Amino acid sequence: SSRSLARFIGGDEHKLLCFTDASAKAYSAAIYFYSSVNGKASVDLVFSKVHIAPAKQHSIPRLELLVFLLERDA
Question: DSSP string of 8-63?
Fold first, then answer.
């Protein structure tokens, strides 16, 4: 099922939450939008992407930095 994010964002509290991960095989990112309206919280996935790690071996910290380039490829 597909959900949409409202264009008007009202409410009491808003946050963008970004989670990233990297391993020797792949690296990924997921961004969520958290909002609270009258004490009722909701969380929606805004963006997610995964890439297979390059064939040339990189350190895990280097792959974690590559996560920040994922949005550019979206």
Answer: S--SSEEEEEEEEEE-SSEEEEEEEEEEEETTEEEEEEEEEEEEEPPSS---HHHH
